[in-house]
């Protein structure tokens, strides 16, 4: 598809369990491609144990490529920062903001995602998600505000400088 340009990987790593980034922790993956060594199960909602990375509140993940052999890409517990994180093929979703509080912001700077049958970013918590300089191709939705969460919150999204191709919609919200 047009617009598809995944950066070169510096190696690969198949994780046997989700890698956790501690509260306010930083992880720089050095452009290694990480996955879980399992086949995508499509739009079946995975659990947190299915993620490649689990980021605790305030944690940061940078310079990583999420490979195709995974069920659930990256989960964030709130106020996370992603910098130059790429998904070669999205499974259920690429990035889920799970438990963010009102007043907190999760930031996505750069990076990109390809081949999402549904959503790329799933915003379940409260607060704001800011997406800038992101490349996305062959996807259904870049951003989705949770439509079936047990608790509904006021949510905000900022989308700036995104390069999108072969899409259905940029943002979907609940009303």
Automatic annotation (TrEMBL):
One of its GO terms (cellular component) is extracellular region. Its cofactor is Ca(2+). It is an enzyme of class 4 (lyase). GO terms for molecular function: pectate lyase activity. GO terms for biological process: pectin catabolic process. Keywords: Calcium, Lyase, Secreted, Signal. It comes from the Eukaryota. It is found in: Secreted. SUPFAM superfamilies: Pectin lyase-like (SSF51126). Pfam families: Pectate_lyase. Its EC number is 4.2.2.2. Belongs to the polysaccharide lyase 3 family. InterPro entries: Pectate_lyase_PlyH/PlyE-like, Pectin_lyas_fold, Pectin_lyase_fold/virulence. Pectinolytic enzyme consist of four classes of enzymes: pectin lyase, polygalacturonase, pectin methylesterase and rhamnogalacturonase. Among pectinolytic enzymes, pectin lyase is the most important in depolymerization of pectin, since it cleaves internal glycosidic bonds of highly methylated pectins. Favors pectate, the anion, over pectin, the methyl ester. This is Pectate lyase. It comes from Hyaloscypha variabilis (strain UAMH 11265 / GT02V1 / F). It catalyses: Eliminative cleavage of (1->4)-alpha-D-galacturonan to give oligosaccharides with 4-deoxy-alpha-D-galact-4-enuronosyl groups at their non-reducing ends.
